[in-house]
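> Could you send the Adenylyl-sulfate kinase prediction when you get a chance?

Sure thing. Input:
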Amino acid sequence: MKTENTVWHNQHISKGQRAALKKQKPALLWYTGLSGSGKSTVANAVDALLYKYSCHSYLLDGDNVRHGLNGDLGFSDEARIENIRRISEVAKLFLDAGLIVSTAFISPFASDRALAKAKLAAGEFIEIYIDTPISVCEQRDPKGLYKKARAGEIKDFTGIDSNYDVPAAPQIHIKTAENSIEQCAEQIVAYLIEHNFISVDNLN
Ligand SMILES: Nc1ncnc2c1ncn2[C@@H]1O[C@H](COP(=O)(O)OS(=O)(=O)O)[C@@H](OP(=O)(O)O)[C@H]1O
Ligand SMILES: Nc1ncnc2c1ncn2[C@@H]1O[C@H](COP(=O)(O)OP(=O)(O)O)[C@@H](O)[C@H]1O
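Output:
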């Protein structure tokens, strides 16, 4: 432990005060799914709706975080575990700021998603399973990565030669092969309204 000579400081303004000012309840929308399943697309659509409804939100997106904060990490199991650990810590800080945070990472291991959930207060972690058959992801192949993985040019590719644990009981189950991007986004916003994270007043 490298924290033995450091002390946690409580801030004068609480998370509850920050959230009350924003007229919302902080939440972590944790998107998980295969590459090409639609995490980034749906998360961006939800974020745009939240912005339209004057909610205070922020999206931590896979490729962007891997270019910066986690630029030192690859795709071994150990690197993915550290990737998700850092992301969940950053997300927790953003929740402390009173925000509705979205994270769009494959996050393939159920144990890491459980650790992220355990860092937050009850009910704040909302697991969103972007459930798209690998055949559809592979057909979409927006970045040409499945082609490379099948050709053996990329190793440890999720769903091919690296494991993905299907969420056992996600709060929200999204099927992108059967619903439009707009329908998927609306399903998630409806959950936030139903569970009082955002108020219908925001929508007017
Ligand atoms: N080996 C391998 N396996 C899976 N994905 C790979 C790999 N190499 C590069 N990429 C690209 O990196 C994106 C996944 O990064 P994540 O940070 O979301 O992955 S993880 O949560 O740590 O498993 C992923 O982005 P998405 O397609 O948006 O999911 C890929 O573009
Ligand atoms: N209903 C849908 N929801 C999300 N993405 C969809 C949907 N239908 C088609 N797509 C397409 O699938 C691709 C998903 O890519 P992306 O969002 O980058 O996935 P991921 O972030 O999971 O890797 C995009 O090209 C998107 O336009």
